[in-house]
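Researcher: I'd like a structural prediction for the single chain below. Treat it as a standalone chain; there are no partners to consider.
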Amino acid sequence: MSLTVPRRFQGPAESGNGGWVSGALAEHAAAPAGSAVSVRLLSPPPLDRPLGVEADGSAGVRLLDGDLLVATAAPVPDLTGPVGAPVPLAEARAAEAGYEGLTDHPFPTCFACGTGRDPAEALCLRPGPLDDGTGRYAASWVPAEVSVPIVWASLDCPGGWSAGIAGRPMVLGTMTARVLALPEVGEAHVLVAWPRGGEGRKFLSGSALYTERGQLLARAEATWIAVDPATVLPAGAPS
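Model: Treating it as a single chain, here is the predicted structure.
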């Protein structure tokens, strides 16, 4: 088996968006539909060339660039923390005015939240802080197309902004997600994200995707790693 990350789904300029890559690899894991899968990113996923996908144990898989281990994925029982409450669409749209990426984005090429992308080919999410004192972030989303990897990408970057990527570049280390149902093309949806603490260079986040009526469609938990922006960045989320 193989997996190619088209340049359209980049995060940093020369590697894949962490959420999209994680979702694409999760589809290869032997997990029942609607169950949770955990992905660990170990190296920047290169763009536009086939990467090997190999079975790793009874249900897990590994993503390989030649002999280099790029990522691993395996089913898990479920996510560990509580899910955030839904947010009205109007509040999510109001929060977008506070999106920090509009003034300082570490990875403007990001498929999910980059400010240098064309909305015709990228999600262009604008997660901003809610004005309710919770530390949560929210964004609206009207999908033009849907797939499991795109849902993972939509859950990825809002979590990174809620974890504090503004002014402190971070990349996605691990992401665990559960997709209960795909969103409807052309319908308004709401993404909600929240910080879950951290220690040292590691920061934790949660995120969820809802319909406009508040039905939970998907949720995720992620670990982010703060990086030196002068270094070559590994695959990552608000990428």
